[in-house]
Please model this.
Amino acid sequence: MKVFVLSKEGKCLMPTTPRRARVWLKAKRARVVRHDPFTIRLRFATQQHVQPAKVGVDTGSKDVGIAALANGKVVFQAEVHLRDDITKKMTQRRTFRRNRRARKTRYREARYDNRRRPDGWLPPSLHSKAEATVKAVRFITSFLSVGRVTVEVGRFDTQKRQNPDIAHLEYQQGELQGYFLREYVLDKWQRKCAYCDAHGVPLEIEHIVPTSRGGSNRASNLTLACHACNRRKGQHTAAEFGFPEVQAKARVPLKDAAHVSSLKSRVVHDLQAVFGESQVSITYGYQTKYKRIQVLDLPKSHTNDAMAIACEIGEVVKPLEMVHQIRCLARGHYQRFNGLHSEHKCWAPRKVRGFKLYELVKAKGGVGYIAGRREKGAFVIKDVISGKNLLEVTPRKLVRVARPTQGWMITRQPMLESIRKEGGASSPN
Ligand SMILES: [Zn+2]
Model:
């Protein structure tokens, strides 16, 4: 684990070892700026030789992986858990509004036709996710000097996708192409066995006309089959095996889909606005997968993927033992009154039994954040990573670990735990 260093003027310097940081702090030559990630600011002037860090971003709809590499080493890895309560909150706000309007009040002029969506408008739920992703990358600039930012935007390249039979030539050009082809075939056949429609079983790449009978490795000759079907089909062609439609579908090239989702293109666009167009590059899932499995030899996790995204092809780095977990939180709720005529005040006090909402606490050996407080009774503690209820416990048993800052709850966890807990929709291994 590295300690991040700011200069006397507050500029980002290269990270240092915990040992050196300890010496500086003890001699009062530096002071602590932040605990998570641990950052110090020097009290003496130094020369500023800084090598900008490379940052990799693994975007997602639930969790985002972020990694920063400086001097060929991983110095920062974090998993950002995005908010998924926006839709619910917007619906709630809408109902409140409708109720208010339906009440017997003064005449209100109709105001339904006076809003226009600006260019690049995203639904609020996606907007929040895109903003949070960009915010996480900007956060890194507060303790590291950031050079290149690489974002994964899709599983594979659309340009290549329009021309599926690149395979014949490029299949032989290195192993990376195999990864491209594999993603292509998985996508084209919708990740299921072409012969028995089996889902969620290990699938094999299958030659429609077997290689033993002159079949090629072109994309148009490949499909997916479960192990059982692959065995049974043996030396037959798909038509002989009783599936002429598979053979027919194979010849049709894949339709071009707008696979770069609006969320991802917004993230790339916003990052370009912050870091400059030349500093932000994009990459594809098949490249990440190749680097993670073949070069780095790591299990799938958002932070490992982010690391692979930041690496050049062939560059070998080791993941950190500790990964930062960042949960995006609401900054409170704003309901002031309830009752038919808003006659009941309903705001909770800022502190209940000394605790605020969303504080990180330790209880019964587990760590989580406070999601609900009762004046007389148990507090609801939720897990930082999954956001699920962890336990209900009396506030007497709680020990505060940290407070949320700027809509974020930051904590640290061993890498192994974050791999174990990974969930949600993401690409398969
Ligand atoms: Zn099958």
